Fold each of these.
Amino acid sequence: MEPLRSSDPARVAEHRLLGRLGAGGMGVVYLARTPAGALVALKVLLAEYAEEPGFKERFRREVEVARRVDSPWVVPLVDAEPDAEAPWLATAFVPGPSLGEAVAAYGPLTEGGLRLLGARLAEALGEVHRAGLVHRDLKPGNVLVAHDGPRLIDFGIARAPEDRTLTETGMVVGTPGYLSPEQAEGRSGDGIGPASDVFSLGCVLAFAATGRAPFGSGAVDALLYRAVHDPADLDGVPAGLLDVLGRCLEKDPARRPDAEELVRELTADDAPSDGEVADWLPEPVTRLIAERSAAALALPDIEHTLAPSDAPSDTGPAEPDPHETSGPAEPQDARPAGRRRFLLLAGGAGVLAAGGGGAWWAAARDDGSGGGTPAAAASSRRPVHTIALHGDLSGPHRDIGRAQERGLRLAVAEFNARGDAPFTVKVRAGDDGGDPTTSARLAAELTNDPAVLAVVGPTTDATGQTALSKYDAGLLPVVGVSPGTTTLSIQGFRSFLHARLPDAVLSFYVGNYLRGIARSRKVGVVVDRPAGNYGTDMGSALSNSLGDVGQPSVPEVVSAMRRDFGSAVQAVLSAGADSVFFAGLPDRGALIAATLRERAFQGARVSGPALLDGRFLTQAQEAAEGWVMVAPVIDADRKPEAKKFAAAYRERFREAPPRYAAEAYDVTGMLLTALSKLPSKSRTRENLLTAVRDGKYQGITKSFAFQKKTGMIVIDGTGGYLWRVEQGDFVYGGPAPLTV
């Protein structure tokens, strides 16, 4: 939770505001107390939207829908005023994560947990359907988890089956990957009935059982096509639930069970005992809910709106890592009392729950310039500019996102500590959770913030794809250090700077390694279709580069639905391959690693940056030993130029610098250096973008210069590095070979 800002009201109607839970393009969600003292999540819409034709009517309909549904497994509406100048509604506050957040962080549920989840969501849907409504957007992000079971939220697009005010033929409404076939086909309102919610429930349960969406990931049109035509991927679903989930996911709505039937089947003979209810979630999730509940209970009755001089700054240098909940405390005496008071509110964890279940914040500190020191006094007189981090800080790639955030913060801290710094830098960190839709909303929010002059991020190809058009609209410079697909560079985004070697270029280094160090004569190239653009870029580029020098390769493409790599391995080995390159993701990489180990394969096993991931080590275990990855990232402890950075990182964060921290540190330094060279009145987004595009910056990881037309980093022979799995860990091997 963030503290209230000076522009925030102290109250909305009779509800006293305690802090900000989140903000988006359409409004703000606050944590508030009702006149009776209960905590609520209070959503206030911007007044400008209320002036749009039909907006208040749509909002009023959402309120009416929420009032019509009465179930213990639905977050209840507490109060609302749709006709206010700035319409608002308040729902009960649930101090728990979303199902998506819980599964991504702590893994799938047990069969018992799945049965309880499914039965209680089916009960909730039964009440929705009895009210004459269809939810239409059941997905992991719209399910909050609590000790006693799930809670269904968000009735913004719920409608009666016959209501066509939202959906006309050909329009797709909802979240791809969790839509029923009838929704994916864009059928008109009377084609979307209760059975559509049952299909979505089947998708949610499949996700909770396996940790992945049953129709994969990727482009929206591909997800819609699979929902209509392809069978769901239920590999990993407990055997006792395969039949019921299979029927939920029938393409024909008439063949699906209704909500009441699902409750009976999932509950089996007896309702869960108290002990079973308590154990329905993984223990770390239960502990997380307890911590967030305690933090909420610790809130005072009133938290004053903070004046600008008291408001916790989101300046990067001295903020705690938003994801650290323990560790050595820093000295308190240099912090303003207002900030100190706010930190104490949340107890030891320093965090408070977000009512939507998706975003949490630590209390922000000041700029760390040393209280009453001369540097602090100078800093207070400087102009202030903001650099933002757009990353996956809570989803499947959170390790990379958090590493980039820390690298950025360290660069800003060092800049602000300079006595000759021409301005002070604040950091604004945004979390998209690895979700492309959230990424687009976050990009729009950052673009609309005039204080933000540049962005480092996003973390992945998919989140980059949805965000870059938003940044481009505001000509906001955005520097990516971990996305790898060349697609991002060739689409003509004016404000995007691709600060790492694209995957297709990394394949050139892979080929040099295989032909040179590994002395391979024939390479088996296994492209895994679920890896999307990454697999295609890496596999195709490697085959082409090998072909250019007359080196034979054996390509093999693995279907998205296949969980056994036996036939692919057999095909490439039978063709005489003495090495194998895998273009795929960590979980699938573990499968092919196990298959090669079973075959006692002794040749080189090589992959790209996707397998440089702790999940590969965890899932592959002994089968990972000896694998080599070619990636665009260094080990700061092993690169001489980065030793000073590594020491500073250890001092600040009490651990070794993780991968991608140094790269984010570098590009932040590049942005700040370019901005420093601009006259004060010329420090605009456009001028900063021009300065970086036209300049060259020598970092600790490599030199940075960009192609004028594409924004892609200029390839100068550096940027590809070797990593090898040794004794269960990744070991840095230095630059990948430029020549054979």
Amino acid sequence: MHGRLKVRTSAEEAARKKKEQEIKVKTYRAGMGRIFEKRKNGQLDDEMMQITGQILSRNPDVYTLWNIRKECILKMAESLGNEAKQSLYDKDLGFTEQCLMVNPKSYGAWHHRCWILENCPTPDWEREVALCNKYLKLDERNFHCWDYRRFVVKKAKVPAEDELKYCTEKIHKNFSNYSSWHYRSKLLPLLFPHETSPARPISESKLKEELEMVLTAAFTDPNDSSAWFYQRWLLGYSQPALDIAAIRISKNLAIASFSKPIDLRTCEIETNFGFNFNPDRWQPVQKGNKYDVAWIVEDSFELGASDLQQYIFKCRMSDGKDYAINLKKCSDGFYGMKCPKFEYEFGAAVIEELKNQLESCNQLLEYEPDSKWTLLTASLLMRAIDRRGYHTKSLEYLQKLEKIDYLRQGYYADLASKWAIEKVLEEWIEQGDLTVAIDLSNLNLATIFYEQYMSIAKIVILRNNCLSDRTATKFNAFQFCENLDASYNQFSTPGVIPHIPNLKVLSLEGNKFSNNATTRLEDQMKNL
């Protein structure tokens, strides 16, 4: 009827959108075709800048076009003086802002802006800091802008104190700000380094303050993960520091294992008992790896009756740092192992704060017993306070998490395996006797951690766990193992256990092998 807006039917609307899309695709293809033709002919001119600008202003995520614009700018800038060159770069800075209005999270636009500022004659870094303030006011969780901010504040020489204050303001405005929490973790070690230990990120007094602050954030919204993640950083759940884990040398085999993967072929090995190790002879236990936690060398070693007070194995890494371990002499050679640090050790004031936080978590669990972040944090707090005393309780929480947060049950199962292995491993290393079995049976293990520390063990018992084929490659580290019991697990592929040179007894009964597979497995065992 007259005066009424006609509403398109769904079919008509779909046809209209399809026609619009076809026009856009046709225009895009024509523009890209023209760009590549001009590039092929070396025509990096104003027309090229115009065409790339037309496409990028609608879709700023086409990396190729940003690179072509760089080529154009460099070509044009060749014959210009500094003033004209600066004008050229400033114009493209303005263009990137137009693109960021279309998509504030465009990787290409932010990266292009970095390139412009690093190449123009007189970059205005203070202006860029103000630009970051503008965009983070619109969206304080724009991690692209946070990344760009770290770049420009370094160039502008903004004091770290000012940046920490800015982070604090953003966190108080919105606790759910992963980027700000992350940035905070980079600033605090610069401003509040630990008094005595370089391995610890921040001082004890500042750590206590941060724990109090993060608890407030976490309990404001227990279902938001950003503050919980930051708390994990405060508690020290990070990669272990590089160090020698274990060494063993026999008449025909030597193994060197480390807390983190390294390329041992780039290192220098030195001992005080006459052994010379050519770095080129070392091979990773996982064949084909460039970096590995365990390395072996097969050779004939003279185990002379030297009578030194101390046997030292020293390794100089590619970074120039020396790492050493004291070895003991045994009937068939030398061996040594270090107990890894599983968590940070905190002072009395911090421990008291951690206990208060654990109590708060337990109170919250009375009202929200299925709060996954509270359960996980409570288990981590127990580990930080007294991992041996709370060992059973922390594993109970992880078992509960496997049921509550079943989509991540593999993560919780792996974490439980890690903690269970840590307890047994620590006790085994404290005994310091290679002839004693490292008994990891009946622990419900889903995988193996710290295999580099077990590389010198004679007997490894993994009976009655949940280990599967994905774990078998870990056994490559067990080069000195003579008796391996992996019975009653979930291995399903015959021959999945790798060759272990010193192995005499291998138990695999109770796994998922078929009858034929069992026969083939028995044949393999006869050849051992």
Amino acid sequence: MSLLGGINDPRDLDALSPAQLETLAGEIRAFLIAEVSKTGGHLGPNLGVVETTIAIHKVFDSPRDAIVFDTGHQSYVHKLLTGRQDFSGLRQKGGLAGYPQRSESPHDVVESSHASSSLSWADGISRAFEMTGQNDRHVVAVVGDGALTGGMTWEALNNISDDNSRNLVIIVNDNGRSYAPTIGGMARYLNTVRTKKGYHDLHQSSRKLFDRLGAPARALYRGARGGLHGFLSRVTNNSSLYANLDIKYLGPVDGHDLGAMIEALQQAKQYGAPVIVHAITEKGRGYQPALTDVADQFHAVGQIDPETGEPISAPSGAPSWTGVFADEMVRQAEQDETIVGITAAMLRPTGLHKFAERFPTRVFDVGIAEQHAVTSAAGLAFGGLHPVVALYATFVNRAFDQVLMDVGLHQAGVTFVLDRAGVTGPDGASHHGMWDLAILQVVPRIRLSAPRDAERLREELAEAVRVTDAPTVVRFPKGNVGPDIPAIRRTVDGVDVLREDAQKDVLIVAVGPMAELSLEVAELLEAQGIGSTVVDPRWVVPVPWSIIELSDAHRIVVTIEDGVRVGGIGTRIRQDLREAGVDTAVTELGLPDEFLEHASRSEILQRVGLTPEQIAEDLVAQVRGNKIPIARPLSDAGHAAAYPSLKNSDTDTLHRLVR
């Protein structure tokens, strides 16, 4: 029987000798390569924290001691050591989550996979333990060097250093990368540490160097552009930037030397005050295909051949949404030298890498710092440039105040490109990009677009970067783009009519990628003798006037979006219809206001009722029971009086673009 098979609880590690722990580490790496290659998942990060995670569970007593992982994508080893060794359904419906999840185990504390929050969690938990007399409990926060580029980390450290009586251990997993190589002042500092002769000697014999350090070395916390450079130790001998902070520092320690890591954590545990353990690790450790992957060292993979690391499934002939954006961004920048790109540690995942290759001086990767990215973009716009801020939709939530007050209030011409919008699938609750439409539409003068296909993505990006007096948004889902969906006509204000039956029963307003589903709904309605019109607004906020007119000519309006239904585009259309004096019934279809589980996109949409069959069945029942008469068309003369919320200044630019 393997050693791993005998681990059902972290305390099972107590019976293993140092040699057996080394054997266990090898078994875990082999398990991860074999199992994650079948399902896909975060392989590289977990291969890099095998020894570190074993050392944590050897020294600390989870769940009594709280272990907090920053982002949590590196928690697979933690799951294995806490009794969760069935990886057959990893990131699939009913299987293990790809991140910590409280419903799975009492050993999981923080579920959110948004970076840079772990130290704030650790600060709060350790304060609570201290205030409630639980002084024998420890808090361990595992944070990557990439996450240390986030501002929340420094806010937390400022408060942690204010109270040195708590049992708090911060393990910095320093592999020089988040998704891609860590950038900024922190990266330069850590590169210096790694290339010093002292570190080279440590890497060759980390235990010997650790023994020379003796008791925990006094360290002054240092800051340099929001990175680990913040810490002064006797090893690095750099001058102090923030000498007023006093957090004990151990390291650097070879994060793959089990003995050294265990000893470092034992000393940190016994110290009785906040301690930083600086562990140098290697992402993708022990798996050559990951180590030779220059892009991201197998940060996240699909199904792969475990021997070669090559994808198993043949690549689809259809381009990805990200790929279409990447190419169009370069094309737009070739035509307009004021366009610059900004991202937050996700140059390749958001598609800006092609732009960076073509225009290396016009792209800024600010690290995991979305708030800074957005306000910096406002400054770039003030200086005469047009910034395109490329983020995952779920991460724009982190910078809403900056979108509202720095970009929106100042009428800055900034374009936000939100990748992975809507239901993203296997990464679970904190990665679904389902809140952007509801959150962002409250920003005055903002203009939101949702392309339905590749051609519309190109069109709407081109239109967005020509708006200079307000924020614009282009949002699209994860995955491959389907075939282009042609319009039978386009209204003067840019609404595409995709289908138009003579019988005006139902107006279906399709938001972006829901257009294909909407056309399928129309086909099912036709089979029941119900006529429909299907439209794609292209720009969903502000609501185009032609949507108001078309709504007035139909018995029922149904909006279909892949964002949260509460406060979504359907709600906005309902409100604008009432303001215009149009009383057509509106059915708002979208995602429920709940945290959606990890499953495939199709499985989730089916569960929440967003399938053609379910929608058509409900609409048939509504139409056949609906006694509301068709309203008379609203005259153009009544436009301004009945619909004051749409000021000419808000729509003129878009009208000009589509004429």
Amino acid sequence: MKGEIAEKLQSKIKNLPQEPGVYKYLNEEGVIIYVGKAKKLKNRVSSYFVKQHDASRKTRKLVSEIRDIETVVVDSELDALLLENNLIKEFQPKYNILLKDDKTYPYICITKERFPRVFSTRNIEAGKHEYYGPYASLRTMNTLLDLFKRLYKIRSCTYNLSRKNVDEGKFKICLEYHIHNCLGPCEGKQTEEEYEEDIKQIRSILKGKIGLAKGYLKDKMNTAAAEMEFEKAAQYKDKLDHLQNFQAKSLVTNPNIEEVEAYSIKSSESMSYVNFMKITDGVLHHTETVQVKKSMDESDEQVLLYAIFDFRKKYNTASRKVLTNIELEEVEELPFEAHVPKIGDMRRLIELSMKNVFHFMKEKEVLKQEKEDKKAHFQTLLQLKADLNLKELPVHIECFDNSNFQGTNPVAACVVFKDGKPSKKDYRHFHIKTVVGPDDFASMYEVVTRRYKRLLAESEPLPQLIIIDGGKGQLGMAVKALRDLEIYGTIPVIGIAKRLEEIYFPGDSLPLHIHKKSRSLALIQRLRDEAHRFGITFHRNRRSANSIHSELENIEGVGPATIKKLLTEFKSAANVKKASQTDIAAVIGNKKAETVVKYFKEKE
């Protein structure tokens, strides 16, 4: 740090008070790059500029960019924590922790109008209506809205139901009234007092106070029953059942736990993961897990405190009791009682919160790995493009391999890789139809012709590279097939010889030798090996099927229809051989069963 700048900063630090507050570090452009809180401002800020050789690399980098310091003195360490949280949210300094949350979650809105409406929204108009949420789980929100529809008759129209408009008869009841989803406040068929009572119950449920709504419905049911209004009593009982059913499904812990918030944290080197759960009357009211990017080697306690205040502000919660999986000792006076439960229902809540954290971490790690794999595959394809001097990036590659055993059961395989990964749904087997005997060259001509003739007929996309498992002879037959289809020259085609891993190009007698440790050669080898594996598996299955058939076909007097019945029932000739004459007779009759059993006995 230059002498003039260091002198200026040291002068500022010298005059800082030993009081709680927030400090802001600014860079050369006057942009806030870091916000921190302190119990004693002078001690905390000066600590950044002494013993720099002991500081972490990130801290040294931060200090090297500081050109000015601004501070705000507050009354307590708690006030400093709250102000720090707000400033980080407002300015998002690059060296501060950052909650990775780019989602806009929906809220449930209760409008501030006569006969309020209840609906979900992502657009918040502060001060205009009441909002409950946000709901990280759409399923939870929709379950609540469905519950309200079952319990209460809330209007869905957007009419302005002022007294004047209703008295003047400006509106007419609609279909919702006739199907009993609304009680017709637009025509004055429902009083404002009755409607507001329903809205009051909805508010209590949204705040997690299900007990209030249950008590109200129970009182109404008992009153109606006492007054001999049994139909009305049955309606209230039905609503009460719906509410109790909802509570039973939503219950995660003891219903006697009135209101509590649970937080858990798990960290890696550069990232922390925090879960939040709000429980009221034993019901999980809100839950969300976020990713927090650490910038300055913050402790778990620092990150968790930051996340707690962020969640409380976001969800508008103010529970007195907070459960955590780590001790919170950094701030002396918190606006809640925080403790780490060791046993009982509270401990089970923290364990549930931690399960959510671990699941979220695993999900993020899988996504990260997929991104890294995709990047690695892309780099490999770039290398392959350069090594083979291709015009296009080979995102779609196909590889062919022939397979036969002593000239029997000739088959071929085509495997397909997309974006550097196997696309197994696109793999294809081929029975060789036009070639007699073990002729690999003619077989290659047939399968390449059949493959691309079909793709052309079905207007399917062609690959950016074709690989032939074999040397110059098989490559030449593949080229001939492409020429006959009039697509040679539009698709690059190469052959790979097994012994020396030489790459052959059409018309070039000298092979290309790609470096043995090259990622592009590894990809070509993987395609070749996968085509070989796929073809060999198919070939073995076919040989096995044929050997089973020939064994049963050797039995005189047993025809194809009988063989089919036996194989359908016993699955293999070996199982037929093991079966008793009675079991075989149950499938093909006594006479033929006797013939089959006699055949296997004589063979033994």
